[in-house]
């Protein structure tokens, strides 16, 4: 018996170790410029009380990322390396480089350490005294060495260079840095360059570093945005499929289907026992109509007036073979037309003005597959995209994501600025709540006149708001994250978070 218990314990340890090796996780290593230019305070004439140095702005943003990673229990890896410091790590041969946070799964200690560091004003970290020294080449080599030592499988690996100025480097030094950046492409590590400050203009040298580290063409290169990069780290969009676009029997294109981000999800609550702190399970029962609690209180458990609900069956409206057919929900979900995974073009339609009125399902984004081996794949896709955008047409297509899955009718809406199509599921009448018939029974329908409709249209047109989803956070989620932080840090509850939606209405 002891032998079996030992075997089971060994199996559990192997499963735990395997779960640490494999899984869906991303690794992001920040290379932060710690020279004296990063400690300069950016002036803000409208709000002087919000003036901070560039490195303080980065750590404020980094704390927000850590908070969300910890609250959602995500297994992504994060790390911070400072380069351009006067001191170096102990027992390290790399000069002017300090590892502030080791690249690993985010923990609560990491968040506390970053908070203490920002409150102390970066105490213990001083910039290099020489203004000409800029060890960017050593920092990139050090970051590559960190990734090479990791044996854990990572779905995405990225290095983010944070700076606020364009360093003056010699041509030989720039060549060395470009060669190091080009080696990242073979290691499947992407390099992003983020410049802080309103006056930041990306130099051609930094553009070369990003292009050399990626498997993309110069024509499709886009400068990295800080907002987009942070959104990718906090709620990353992913490639969910590689499909072919069937234009005709003789013409097919290779495409990549991507998500537009993750849904805002609130933290899950689980019922716990107050005595043992064990997770309790919930069960739902239907009470009988003729039951009486007082009469049946002393009966046995088998005579309790509760019953487990049965599955609701679907029934056909019309007779098929002189009888009505019934299906269980599981059988009903399996009834579909089977098509191979692909996107098949049916036709085109003009793009309406109220296209995004109905949100049936979350949308996807389609772009060309840059790693395709088809000849002129990118050229044909670009021609199709530009033609649809100039003509104001959208494509009606059949979309099958996986084998043995349901085929949906979708619109492919062109967006030339982003270099792809939005894929939106077509809304049917059954998916849209049409209240026109019900409104005939109420007099309120006649209260709205054409003049009032025109007035509201003019009012909406005059509204000028720079809308971005990052500016309007989920107030419920922010409250939940704050509660979890207070419990984890053993602190007293503070004031509630600011409701960004309520502020926008003032």
Automatic annotation (TrEMBL):
Compartment(s) of residence: Nucleus
Q: Which GO terms of the cellular component aspect does the record hold?
A: Ku70:Ku80 complex
InterPro entries registered for this protein in UniProt:
DNA_bd_Ku70/Ku80, Ku70, Ku70_bridge/pillars_dom_sf, Ku_N, SPOC-like_C_dom_sf, VWF_A, vWFA_dom_sf
- Can you tell me which family this protein belongs to? Belongs to the ku70 family.
Q: What is this protein called?
A: ATP-dependent DNA helicase 2 subunit 1
Name one molecular function that GO assigns to this entry. Answer: hydrolase activity
According to its UniProt entry, the protein's GO biological process terms are:
DNA recombination; double-strand break repair via nonhomologous end joining; telomere maintenance
Keyword list (alphabetical) reads: ATP-binding, DNA damage, DNA recombination, DNA repair, DNA-binding, Helicase, Hydrolase, Nucleotide-binding, Nucleus
PROSITE patterns per record: VWFA (PS50234)
Looking at the record, the residues that make up the VWFA domain are 27-240
């Amino acid at each position: 018996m002891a032998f079996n218990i030992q075997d089971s314990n060994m199996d559990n340890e192997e499963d735990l170790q395997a779960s640490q090796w494999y899984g869906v996780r991303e690794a992001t290593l920040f290379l932060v410029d710690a020279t004296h230019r990063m400690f300069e305070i950016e002036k803000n004439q409208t709000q002087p009380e919000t003036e901070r140095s560039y490195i303080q702005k980065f750590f404020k943003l980094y704390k927000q990322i850590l908070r969300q990673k910890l609250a959602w229990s995500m297994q992504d890896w994060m790390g911070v390396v400072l380069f351009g410091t006067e001191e170096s790590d102990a027992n390290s041969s790399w000069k002017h480089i300090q590892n502030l946070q080791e690249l690993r799964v985010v923990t609560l200690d990491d968040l506390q350490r970053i908070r203490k560091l920002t409150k102390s004003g970066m105490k213990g970290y001083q910039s290099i005294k020489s203004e000409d020294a800029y060890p960017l080449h050593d920092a990139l080599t050090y970051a590559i060495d960190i990734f090479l030592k990791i044996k854990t499988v990572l779905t995405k690996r990225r290095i983010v260079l944070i700076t606020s100025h364009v360093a003056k480097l010699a041509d030989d030094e720039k060549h060395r840095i470009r060669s190091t950046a080009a080696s990242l492409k073979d290691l499947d590590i992407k390099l992003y360059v983020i410049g802080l400050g309103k006056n930041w203009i990306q130099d051609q040298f930094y553009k070369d570093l990003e292009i050399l580290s990626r498997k993309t063409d110069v024509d499709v290169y886009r400068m990295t945005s800080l907002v987009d990069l942070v959104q990718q780290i906090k709620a990353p969009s992913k490639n969910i499929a590689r499909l072919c676009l069937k234009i005709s029997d003789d013409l097919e294109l290779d495409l990549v289907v991507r998500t537009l981000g993750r849904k805002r999800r609130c933290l899950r609550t689980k019922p716990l026992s107050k005595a043992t702190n064990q997770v309790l399970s919930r069960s739902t029962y239907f009470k009988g109509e003729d039951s009486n609690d007082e009469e049946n209180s002393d009966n046995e458990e088998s005579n309790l007036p509760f019953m487990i609900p049965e599955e609701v069956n679907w029934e056909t409206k019309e007779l098929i073979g002189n009888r009505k057919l019934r299906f269980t929900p599981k059988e009903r979900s399996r009834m579909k037309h089977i098509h191979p995974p692909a996107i098949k073009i049916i036709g085109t339609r003009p793009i309406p003005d109220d296209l995004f009125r109905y949100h049936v399902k979350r949308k996807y984004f389609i772009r060309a597959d840059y790693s395709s081996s088809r000849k002129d794949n990118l050229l044909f896709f670009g021609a199709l995209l530009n033609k649809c955008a100039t003509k104001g047409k959208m494509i009606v297509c059949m979309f099958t994501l996986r084998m043995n899955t349901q085929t949906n009718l979708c619109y492919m809406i062109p967006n030339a600025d982003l270099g792809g199509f939005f894929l939106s599921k077509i809304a049917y009448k059954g998916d849209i709540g049409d209240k026109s018939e019900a409104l005939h029974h109420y007099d309120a329908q006649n209260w709205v006149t054409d003049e009032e409709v025109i007035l509201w249209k003019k009012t909406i047109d005059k509204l000028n708001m720079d809308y971005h989803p990052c500016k309007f956070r989920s107030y419920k989620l922010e409250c939940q994250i704050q509660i979890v932080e207070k419990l984890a840090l053993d602190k007293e509850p503070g004031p509630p978070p600011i409701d960004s939606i309520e502020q926008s209405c003032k």
